Amino acid sequence: MLLTKHKTQSGAGWAIDGYFLPPSFTLGTLLELSRHAMFELLKKLSDGDPASGAEAAPLDPQQEVWAAGVTYLRSREARRAESTAADMYDQVYEAARPELFFKSLGWRVVGNHMPIRIRADSHWTVPEPELVLVVNSRDEIVGYCAGDDVSSRDIEGENPLYLPQAKTYNGSCALGHGIWLCYPPEIKEIPIQLNIQRGDETIFSGETTTGTMKRTPSELVGYLTRETYFPQGVFLMTGTGLVPGNEFTLQPGDKVSIRVGELMLENPVEA
User: From start to end of the chain, where are the E strands?
Assistant: First the structure.
């Protein structure tokens, strides 16, 4: 099942597999249910009108997006290259406890075809394509979407304590194009692709798979929800295994295209 959010003349509208759900539907209400009850409800509601309108970020304004760091070997190597405290990233990669940090509230998240941004005080900004887990109020994984954890590598590299400034600002979090609702065993060996276009030229293209991630989705969710309650669900970015080289930085006018499984997320870049 593919759950999408659309901009309509009467406000936001949710759709399942291309058909609108009742106007009163919200993702927060859905994620209050158990996984089994959620799927049963959607089957009963999936006979609305064909969906139309531009896509919006697939979450409610009050929902939270969190992120995990240094979950792939490539990410650890990139963090070491940028940081003045390289040993710290080795310790995080090898430790039992993962790195988890707050990324964004739902109202600040941009959706498919909406612009991501470069901080004015950063000279080294990169996209980070990620599988994003969708978790309900019962701490059950109910699906995933595509995400871009836009990051200012120079700011984080200057001092790891600057991570919130490097990771959390307007236009730094993109999700889309919808949520693929599924059971956890289906979230295995999901291909992730990143393509960056500058004018008519492809300046970066790469591919990886979630099968190279050191930590499992259930492990990351277990730590996130261990002492924190999310009554209307939560989104969890699971880290990146695709990092452009140290000589690369985004520029205004670039176009970033991310594919996670069959889900696409495309965003232009603004200053």
Answer: 2-8, 11-16, 19-20, 55-56, 64-69, 99-105, 116-117, 125-126, 129-135, 141-149, 151-152, 173-181, 191-198, 201-209, 234-237, 255-260, 263-270
Same domain, 242 and 164: yes
Structural domain of 22: 2-56
Beta partners for 130? 147
- My answer on whether 152 and 188 are in the same domain is yes
pLDDT in tens, 175-228: 999 999 999 999 999 999 999 999 999 999 999 999 999 999 999 999 999 999
Residue 95 has pLDDT above 60, yes or no: yes
Angle of CA points 249, 254, 260, to nearest 5°? 90
Please state the pTM of the whole predicted model.
0.94
62: Cβ contacts below 8 Å, ≥ 6 apart:
28, 105, 106, 107, 232
In angstroms, rounded to a whole number, what is the distance separating the alpha carbons of residues 233 and 214?
24
